[in-house]
Amino acid sequence: MSQDFEQYRTAQAPLPRGTWAWNLYGAGLENVGSDGRPEYFPLAAPGADQLLVRVDAASLCFSDVKVVRLGNQHPKLTDRDLKTAPTRLGHEATVTVVQVGAALRDKYHPGERLIIQPDIYQQGKSTAYGYAIPGALTQYHLMGAEVLDNEGVTYVFPVGQAVGYAEAALTEPWACVEAAYTQRRRLTPKSGGIMWIAGRPGDTAAYQFAQGLDAPATIVLSDVPPSLRALIDKNTTDKNTRARLVVRDGVSVPEFDVLKQELTGGQGFDDIVLLQPRSANLVGAVAQLLARRGILNLVGGEPLDGNPVIDVGRIHYDYTAYLGNPGPDIDASYGAAHNRAELCAGGVALVVGAGGPMGQMHTQRAIEMAGGPRVLIATDVNDERLALLQARFAPLAEQRGKRLIIVNPERAAESLRAVVMRATGGRGADDVIVCVPSGPLIGEVAPLMAPEGMLVLFAGVALGTMVPLNVTQVYLQNAQFTGTSGSALADQELVIRKTRDHELSPSLAVAAVGGIEAAQEGIRAVSEGRYPGKVVIFPQLHGLPLTAVTDLESTYPDVARQLGPDHVWTREAEQALIERFLTDPQGEVSST
Fold first, then answer.
1. Counting CB atoms within 10 angstroms of each CB, which of 90, 106, 158, 435 has the fewest?
2. How many C-alpha atoms does 503 have within 13 Å on its Cβ side?
3. For residue range 97-126, what is the model confidence (pLDDT) as tens digits?
């Protein structure tokens, strides 16, 4: 280890007078920075409750592209005048503490490495780092209560020296992948919420509702059997939690919006129990009445007359949940035991869009997962990305005793459906993971799921994206529809633990690297899908243009010699890169 790298690692090098940064001044890539270059700002000393941190690595994400495209129309930046109050991208980051404010010296110390959890909430509203809170596309920045003590929550945690800088920055996207398989749906009736139980006239089934009926503050009844009405009366009276009961018999679809406005103030019902559903159109209309994190519980023994059209964007962003069972126990639909979130052990998983950066992570996780799927079908329409999947993950799958099937649906001799059905004996995939934000594509691949399978909606498909889904499978075969957005500190901590324990190799995702000057070009590359993996910016490095890891051999052979087999990024390559490009902190930004 060179003296320069040791000084860098321990944060003992002298600080510069300023910092180069890429501010965002509006929609469009031309509004990132000034005239295509970063800007130089004076370096400020931390206040008593602030840290001055050095940004070591920032991984770029397609979410950054969305912010650039939308500007202040992005949901996290609504109505913000970016020209006068710019923000800064870069939410996947790792930093080193270089100065500590007086009030924080018992908690932090210079040289301490931190990972940032960007999904920060204040008063129930997202103020995420790299969005409303300026992020990591800078060399240094002050960090205060907005991150360190936001409503009593600290959104950083130490990472130590055992994990590389790129690995640490990649914990956030990897945490999002982990979160996709951690239960995020609400699986019990909401305490203090509004529940609507809608039945069918003439239904005489003897329904039971043993658990959770005492949770709602308001219960709305429509055409429920008299025995269920009596059960609700008795339950709420016996438990001395008398909910407000509202009876609205004979409500038709045209009246749904009026009912939603009258009883929920337009926010939607927290729980809807639909008894003996028959009509796909009715189920689709009822689903639109759900509140954020709302549950639609379907209880019945007969299939629907078709596939309801469902807002899959709400499954992803609003965590709306579709639960059910054949009956007559209404509460049997709830609970984690009845609603899985993890990949099926020993099953067959289909990853759609597996060649993209996040799709690769889902594929890698499924392969490396102990007790995970035995067969993995990975699809993409980009042959270059599929070649990388084959080279990088086929040996890993063989090593783990699993089978990897790679398919380009646009070029394959047989349909994707034929591939899936042959691999599953005609059942369909136990898990279908969609990493492409396309409603039509979701509609195409959802039918490839086994009757009791799980559909994982990972890509950020927009709210209002309507897709026909086989909801009958939910209550007759216990199928699952899940979706997540973002991650939590616990997810990142899990990724770090897996990395330290050699259960996960985040560095496999690194496809291109660049210095501070390359950030804007890095965003453009992500937008174009130029690289089959993640772009990582090292803000402390000057004069390093955006470079594919596979091109390092011809451009910087001293760095390339430290790569792993098949051009895999390593901590040794990272150290060689830093030693080569780390310059005098007062150095000017390169024009390259």
1. 106
2. 14
3. 999 999 999 999 999 999 999 988 887 777
